[in-house]
């Protein structure tokens, strides 16, 4: 294939999409502001709690004078703890916000909406089966808006591309009346997803008021699609409205951990984020509706580092540029019916995380972009810190290995004020209660989960959605235990991802594996050798009495990294008893569109594979 195939596309309707100048602020449209009170309610308590903790620890450490090691320890504790405190205060804001009256649905003039599905070497029947289910569900609601579906293929594998074309022809024959389906495959996937969407906007964007951007694994109910369309039509200032995707299709241990967390805890954090973000929300790259004219005029991304590097985590940046131009970016977590899938194993999750890490760390270079709203800068910084927190936790762990083995532990002091240029040997020790600190840290880490669980437990209807009190309680305890077990492994893997991003230039870009395929033992050993080695070294330190016994949970996790990784691919839905399946409302009460999509995917798969066999014969 030497050129892009446009034979299955409508007539061109070009729309200019100028590359934005990050060094110069553009003119800003007038835009409503608000949310200062909610932001104060989030950031002030988090900073106060962190400050009190550091003040208390400083008082203990400073009794014999502060050394460099102790100042470094204090700084690392503050750096890690403040983000934990922010999560807790976000939950607090969400709980307060629940007392506010619900905002009724709003309506505006009918719009032409394009449903965009960018794909790259994906499982064909899954993509087109989901697309068919969404079109049917939208048509069943008899919406006032007009909808067209575009499959925007960047697939480079000729066999997959041929299946896509066959699936497109099948989909086009069954499209609901009044809707259109189009397919375009680019000859070269220039600039990946950014270039894929830019190509559509500059070629056909002028014909549409809004575009609803989906991922290859996205699935949205007709109600959710129409609700987002109505919200954008009713608000002429809205540049982007992000839904809250819920996780579906989770069958393995690792996928069920994420799905249960998403359903049981994620909603409360999402509510809090929506409260304080207000018009300065964020974009997660999919399941969001975007005003085409706003995006084209304000969100054209330049290459950075002298034009050499593509902005990888483009969604955060695009949201920031939209807000910079005066458009609102809103998050509506109460729009139900927005779904996506998740990696099925720990290895698949880590491989996806490496790509996200590289992109999010780029945000640090973009913090100086002129004209950004302060909240937009915070989103960019938080995206980078989500990965830099793992090296910070690792450094804190290294400091903790310098503590004694008793509950009443000590911080090693290598320097003193009398002779600051030369280390003391043996080192002096300052008294600090590590047990108390770890209890505080774990309590804060678990507070969002416990709070969300209590809110559900106190509502009989919500508990029934999770299968009853016993099922919910067992699932909650299982999820917490497994999350604690996997956290140190993820800490090491994200630390490695940060180092890869800093010292290498590229990361492989491949379609996400959502099948939960088991990895051979040799692959797991090679993948987790760093964690296993650290676990062995820390075990030796425990046995020798050199490090604190409070580190036993972390040591056990690292030592068992390989078997825990193997466990992550176990199919809970098939093999676990009911009490240990970590069921959630989406597994116990499957949405109709999920079942409909599964039937359509299976039928399309049979059709495509049957056609392939006939062609081969």
Automatic annotation (TrEMBL):
<dbReference type="Pfam" id="PF13632">
    <property type="entry name" value="Glyco_trans_2_3"/>
</dbReference>
<keyword id="KW-1003">Cell membrane</keyword>
<feature type="transmembrane region" description="Helical">
    <location>
        <begin position="435"/>
        <end position="458"/>
    </location>
</feature>
<feature type="region of interest" description="Disordered">
    <location>
        <begin position="1"/>
        <end position="28"/>
    </location>
</feature>
<dbReference type="InterPro" id="IPR029044">
    <property type="entry name" value="Nucleotide-diphossugar_trans"/>
</dbReference>
<feature type="transmembrane region" description="Helical">
    <location>
        <begin position="470"/>
        <end position="492"/>
    </location>
</feature>
<feature type="domain" description="Glycosyltransferase 2-like">
    <location>
        <begin position="212"/>
        <end position="401"/>
    </location>
</feature>
<keyword id="KW-0328">Glycosyltransferase</keyword>
<comment type="similarity">
    <text>Belongs to the glycosyltransferase 2 family. OpgH subfamily.</text>
</comment>
<feature type="transmembrane region" description="Helical">
    <location>
        <begin position="536"/>
        <end position="562"/>
    </location>
</feature>
<dbReference type="InterPro" id="IPR050321">
    <property type="entry name" value="Glycosyltr_2/OpgH_subfam"/>
</dbReference>
<comment type="pathway">
    <text>Glycan metabolism; osmoregulated periplasmic glucan (OPG) biosynthesis.</text>
</comment>
<feature type="transmembrane region" description="Helical">
    <location>
        <begin position="384"/>
        <end position="403"/>
    </location>
</feature>
<keyword id="KW-0808">Transferase</keyword>
<keyword id="KW-0812">Transmembrane</keyword>
<dbReference type="GO" id="GO:0016758">
    <property type="term" value="F:hexosyltransferase activity"/>
</dbReference>
<keyword id="KW-0997">Cell inner membrane</keyword>
<protein>
    <recommendedName>
        <fullName>Glucans biosynthesis glucosyltransferase H</fullName>
    </recommendedName>
</protein>
<feature type="transmembrane region" description="Helical">
    <location>
        <begin position="38"/>
        <end position="61"/>
    </location>
</feature>
<keyword id="KW-0472">Membrane</keyword>
<feature type="transmembrane region" description="Helical">
    <location>
        <begin position="73"/>
        <end position="96"/>
    </location>
</feature>
<keyword id="KW-1133">Transmembrane helix</keyword>
<dbReference type="InterPro" id="IPR001173">
    <property type="entry name" value="Glyco_trans_2-like"/>
</dbReference>
<dbReference type="GO" id="GO:0005886">
    <property type="term" value="C:plasma membrane"/>
</dbReference>
């Amino acid at each position: 294939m030497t050129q892009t195939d446009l034979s299955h596309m409508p007539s061109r309707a070009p729309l200019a999409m100028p590359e934005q100048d990050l060094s110069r602020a553009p003119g800003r449209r007038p835009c409503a502001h608000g949310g200062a009170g909610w932001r104060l309610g989030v950031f002030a308590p988090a900073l106060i709690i962190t400050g009190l903790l550091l003040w208390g620890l400083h008082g203990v450490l400073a009794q014999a004078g502060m050394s460099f090691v102790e100042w470094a320890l204090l700084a690392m504790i503050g750096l890690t703890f403040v983000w934990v405190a922010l999560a807790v205060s976000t939950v607090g804001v969400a709980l307060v916000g629940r007392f506010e009256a619900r905002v009724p649905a709003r309506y505006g003039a009918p719009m032409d909406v394009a449903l965009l599905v960018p794909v790259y070497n994906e499982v064909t029947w899954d993509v087109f089966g989901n697309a068919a289910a969404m079109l049917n569900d939208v048509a069943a609601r008899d919406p006032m808006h007009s909808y067209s579906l575009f499959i925007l293929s960047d697939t480079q594998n000729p066999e997959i591309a041929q299946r896509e074309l066959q699936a497109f022809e099948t989909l086009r024959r069954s499209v609901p009346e009044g809707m259109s389906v189009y397919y375009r495959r680019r000859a070269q996937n220039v600039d990946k997803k950014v270039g894929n969407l830019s190509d559509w906007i500059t070629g056909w964007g002028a014909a549409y008021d809004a575009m609803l951007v989906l991922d290859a694994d996205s699935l949205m109910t007709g109600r959710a699609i129409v609700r987002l369309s109505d919200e954008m039509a009713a608000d002429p200032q809205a540049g982007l409205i992000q839904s809250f995707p819920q996780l579906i299709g989770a069958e393995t241990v690792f996928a069920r951990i994420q799905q249960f967390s998403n359903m049981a805890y994620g909603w409360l954090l999402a509510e809090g984020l929506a409260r304080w973000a207000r018009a300065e929300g964020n974009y997660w790259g999919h399941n969001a509706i975007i005003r085409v004219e706003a995006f084209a005029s304000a969100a054209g991304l330049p290459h950075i580092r002298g034009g050499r590097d593509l902005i990888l985590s483009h969604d955060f940046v695009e949201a920031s540029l939209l807000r910079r131009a005066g458009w609102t970016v809103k998050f509506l977590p109460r729009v139900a019916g927005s779904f996506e899938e998740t990696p099925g194993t720990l290895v698949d999750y880590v491989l996806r995380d490496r790509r996200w890490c590289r992109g999010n760390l780029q945000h640090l270079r973009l913090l100086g972009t002129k004209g950004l709203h302060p909240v937009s800068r915070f989103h960019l910084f938080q995206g980078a810190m989500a990965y830099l927190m793992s090296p910070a936790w690792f450094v804190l762990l290294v400091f903790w290995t310098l503590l004694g083995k008793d509950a009443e532990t000590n911080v090693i002091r290598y320097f003193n004020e009398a002779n600051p240029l030369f280390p003391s040997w043996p080192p002096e020790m300052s008294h600090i209660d590590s047990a108390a600190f770890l209890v505080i840290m774990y309590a804060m880490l678990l507070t969002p989960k416990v709070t969300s669980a209590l809110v559900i437990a106190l509502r009989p209807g919500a508990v029934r959605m999770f299968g009853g009190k016993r099922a919910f309680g067992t699932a909650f305890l299982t999820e917490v235990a497994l999350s604690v077990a996997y956290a140190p492994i993820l800490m090491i893997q994200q630390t490695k991802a940060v180092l890869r991003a800093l010292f290498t230039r590229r990361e492989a870009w491949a379609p996400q594996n959502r099948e939960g395929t088991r990895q051979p033992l040799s692959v797991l050993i090679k993948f987790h050798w760093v964690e296993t080695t650290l676990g062995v070294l820390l075990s030796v330190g425990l046995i020798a009495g050199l490090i604190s016994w409070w580190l036993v949970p972390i040591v056990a996790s690292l030592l068992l990294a390989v078997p825990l990784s193997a466990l992550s691919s176990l199919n809970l839905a098939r093999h676990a008893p009911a009490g240990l399946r970590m069921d959630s409302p989406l597994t116990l009460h499957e949405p109709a569109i999920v079942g409909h999509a599964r039937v359509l995917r299976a039928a399309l798969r049979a059709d495509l594979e049957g056609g392939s066999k006939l062609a081969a014969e």
